[in-house]
Design goal:
Length: 338
């Protein structure tokens, strides 16, 4: 085995050991005392509500590290199995299936690559040509390797049992979009004045269309009041619209608009033919401030620190993520046994 493959195998073996230990951790444990005050015991479980926002990112990071290690180990095992089936070493398999298929880049390809990097390189073509050639070859090797391993995975029976950490959250059925019985629930913590939340709406629409009937979207308020002065009142306005059965219509109008002051919120209600007096009375009363604060507190406890924040069947996604980020989690959730 080559030194690089040896190092790869060593890392993979260590990861496998770590995963084994990780998997053996009990899902529930007996509360452990951490302090006693005048005879009153404080348990580790008592710390969770206070520590959860800080622990959540660490648990997600742990999962990401474990997941990458698992992927590397799976790939190595697939290569070893294929090499064994052919009666050759893994090193020989890589040479036959990858190294031998990497052609040298042509002059035209090098020229095109250089032109795309010229401004950044700021050096003559002849001077950087060897580095460009090596970079292109490495990119080809990487692509061929990925394609080859994908073919091996498609033929093999690979079942990923490692699961990302999840958060249990409730939602308001009056602010639910999509099939109420869908297997996958996206809970969105959002702010009507947040530009990134506005950007995310097109992605969410795309996701709901792709998984029509299988994914539902729940909205929860997370107005960033310190930086978005109009977000709180807009959230209250959306609740007042929900009171008249028009939450999603009002929601869509707010994200389509750049004006969110009180007069604009009332005008948006008129556009939807809501009862003017009822809406204005609701908005003036502040009756939903406590409910919005409850959303904020639940989001903060779940680890939300900015908007938009998403939980796909409890799996956290932060920020205006591309559709593929949702697809990956949704596909895994739909593939799992109900």
């Amino acid at each position: 085995m080559s030194p690089s493959l040896f190092r790869f195998a060593a890392v993979a073996s260590s990861a496998f050991l770590a995963l084994s230990v990780f998997a053996q951790q009990p899902s529930a444990k007996t509360p452990t005392p951490v302090a006693v005050i005048s005879g009153q015991t404080i348990y580790d479980a008592d710390l969770l509500p206070l520590a959860q926002p800080q622990l959540r990112p660490l648990r997600n990071q742990e999962y990401d590290i474990m997941s990458r290690a698992l992927e590397n180990l799976i790939n190595q095992k697939l290569l070893e199995a294929e090499a064994g089936r052919k009666g050759i070493s893994t090193e020989k398999l890589l040479e036959q299936e990858i190294d031998s298929k990497v052609s040298e880049p042509s002059e035209a390809e090098l020229d095109a690559f250089y032109l795309g990097q010229k401004d950044r390189l700021n050096r003559p073509f002849t001077e950087v040509k060897p580095q460009l050639k090596q970079a292109l070859q490495q990119a080809r090797i990487q692509q061929i390797r990925q394609d080859y391993i994908k073919r091996l995975r498609d033929k093999a029976d690979v079942n990923i049992l490692l699961r990302p950490p999840t958060v249990e959250l409730t939602f308001d059925p009056n602010r639910l979009r999509g099939n109420p019985r869908a297997r996958v629930t996206i809970i969105e913590f959002s702010d009507f004045q947040c530009p990134y939340c506005k950007m995310a709406q097109a992605t969410l629409k795309q996701v709901l269309e792709k998984y029509d009937g299988r994914v539902r979207l729940a909205f929860r308020d997370f107005p960033l009041r310190q930086i978005h002065a109009q977000a709180q009142l807009a959230a209250e306005g959306s609740r007042c619209a929900a009171e008249q059965g028009k939450f999603w219509e009002y929601h869509d109008q707010l994200f389509a608009s750049s004006k969110l002051d009180r007069a604009d919120l009332v005008e948006q209600a008129r556009n939807l033919k809501l009862d003017d007096k009822q809406f204005e009375s609701c908005l003036a009363s502040g009756k939903f401030r406590g409910a919005i604060e409850s959303d904020l507190q639940d989001g903060s406890k779940a680890g939300v620190s900015g908007t938009p924040g998403f939980f796909v069947n409890g799996v956290a996604l932060t920020g205006a993520q591309p559709a593929d980020a949702f697809y990956k989690i949704i596909d895994a959730a739909l593939a799992a046994k109900p």
